[in-house]
Amino acid sequence: MTTGDQPPIETVQAYPVEQPMQPHHGAPILVLGIVSLLCSCFVAGIVAWVLANSDLREMDAGRMDPSGRGLTQAGKVCGIISVVLGIVAVITWTLLVVTGTYTGAKWF
After folding, report:
1. How far is CA 19 from CA 34, 62, 65, 69, 106, in A?
2. How confident is the model at residue 92 (pLDDT cuts 50, 70, 90)?
3. Is residue 18 part of a domain?
4. Residue 10 within a domain
5. Local structure of residue 15 (DSSP, 8 states)
6. What is the pLDDT of residues 49-71, one digit of tens each?
7. Measuring CA to CA, which residue among 93, 103, 49, 96 is closest to residue 74?
8. Is the pTM of this model over 0.85?
């Protein structure tokens, strides 16, 4: 057999090809958390909390870029604080209305 008659050599990859990681959403989650605190909008806090949990789960599974973990955790904490403060405010307002303490009096 001459060299021209030999079948081509097949190359086999020793390691599987790594899938690219999804980009993190740390900055938007942090912005949502901060906005929820500054605007007393606990709906934005709930959204930040849910998105942060989803991103952290993906980061733990190795499917998302972990470089945004700090931003994501900070946004989650801001969202949790906003939700807790919103719940406390609603409970306080409800108690004031039920007990008759809140009369809606104007200060001027």
Report:
1. 33, 10, 12, 20, 62
2. very high
3. no
4. no
5. S
6. 999 999 999 999 989 999 999 99
7. 49
8. no
